[in-house]
Write a structure and sequence with these properties.
Blueprint (H helix, E strand, L loop, with lengths): L1 E7 L2 E6 L9 E10 L2 H8 L13 E9 L12 E5 L8 H4 L27 E5 L3 E2 L11 H9 L1 H12 L8 E5 L3 H12 L3 E5 L3 H10 L3 E3 L6 H8 L5 E6 L4 H9 L1 E9 L13 H7 L2 E4 L5 H13 L8 E6 L3 H8 L6 E5 L5
The structure holds zinc ion (2 copies).
């Protein structure tokens, strides 16, 4: 089979390798669609601290080809599935606490010079049984398979955002601020609205602000404008927001988010910061206003399950954020499009050039 390997900044090699042999608890999946997430983009841009060669592709949908004889799964050969390619050993301290997004059981030792990574950008992917999710087939039988695979590949980012929006104890009618209107910010808008939460969006780019409005943000702001924090507080009944979700920007944006909070507000760091740097917060503001500062990282079994249901039922339509579907034969072009500012998600497709 063919597999794509990022060998250095801007460099992708297609290598011919054996189709992996299926272990007893594993499932072999024929890849159909792979989303190019920020992780893969960082390797392509050359801003990833980890080493090359890297086998990217962790947002994967496809069809089951073969199932190991002791694999614990509902899936049958031929089924459409989404993959959550994250190790959850089930027995480490964090897995047992229900924090399987932070599993410490992943064996990430790697020999120098050997390709490593989730390896979804391959014609076949080998998954553990617990990594395979079978979506319900909603709607008519005459679904557009190309669209179905592309949207199901985005179950992974949706699963991360499901966790993020469920972290603060928001109530219907509450108001939240979302910083950044890239795909992650927009998914926050959709999922917060499903919780009955009113949403404001901070985003420098006017076109992205417009799209955030279409996604359901009731007001949008340019965070570079003077008086930004006052404007947010004014729009939030003068009190400030009940939660702020940081999806993009730097330390200064995080400080703005903290300043926008109502009493009892939650500051949720969904995004990481590259390069990182310190943030300043007044401990007395945290104390007297009972603020909570937290992060959320990746997805759990539970949030992935919810994401698959949200997409396959149509409750969240991620279709508009698939900016382009590119055949695997043009993977370098796909990466070039993925890192350009005018796209949300680029999806690489396998055997789908209908
Ligand atoms: Zn991702
Ligand atoms: Zn574990």
């Amino acid at each position: 089979m063919k597999t794509a390997i990022i060998t250095g900044p801007g460099q992708i090699e297609i290598r011919e390798v054996d189709v992996p042999a299926v272990g007893v608890t594993q499932v072999l999946v024929r890849t159909r669609a792979v989303g190019l997430c920020t992780l893969e983009q960082r390797f392509f841009r050359g801003t990833a601290p980890e080493g090359y060669p890297f086998q990217g592709g962790h947002e994967v949908s496809g069809e089951v080809v073969e199932i190991g004889r002791q694999a614990s799964t509902q899936a049958q050969p031929g089924d459409v599935v989404c993959l959550a390619l994250r190790t959850r050993c089930g027995s480490c301290y964090y897995c047992r606490r229900g924090m399987d997004n932070l599993c410490s059981g992943a064996n990430e030792e790697r020999a120098p010079g050997t390709a490593w990574g989730p390896a979804g950008l391959s014609e076949y992917v080998l998954a553990e049984d617990y990594q395979v999710y079978v979506p319900e087939q909603a709607g008519s039988a005459a679904v557009d398979l190309r669209k179905r695979f592309a949207t199901l590949a985005l179950a992974e980012p949706v699963a991360c955002v499901v966790r993020s929006v469920q972290t603060p104890p928001l109530r219907a009618g509450d108001i939240a601020l979302v910083q950044g209107a890239g795909i992650m910010g927009l998914l926050h808008v959709h999922l917060l609205r499903l919780r009955g939460v009113r949403v404001m969006v901070a985003e420098p780019d006017p076109e992205r602000r417009r799209i955030a409005g279409l996604a359901g943000a009731e007001c949008t702001f340019d965070p570079r404008e003077t008086g930004f924090v006052d404007s947010v507080r004014d729009c939030a009944e003068g009190r400030g927001v009940n939660a702020a979700f940081f999806t993009a920007g730097g330390p200064a944006a995080i400080e703005q988010a903290a300043a926008s909070l109502a009493k009892g507000g939650w500051l949720c760091l969904y995004g990481s910061v590259h390069p990182t740097g310190p943030i300043q917060m007044d401990p007395n503001v945290l104390h007297y206003n009972e603020l909570v500062v937290t992060g959320t990282f990746s997805h759990t079994r539970a949030s992935f399950q919810q994401a698959v249901a949200l997409i396959s039922s149509g409750l969240v339509d991620v279709g508009p954020y698939v900016s382009e579907q590119v055949d695997a034969g043009r993977v370098t072009y796909a990466f070039e499009r993925a890192i350009s500012a005018d796209t949300y998600r680029i999806v690489v497709t396998y055997g789908m050039s209908l």
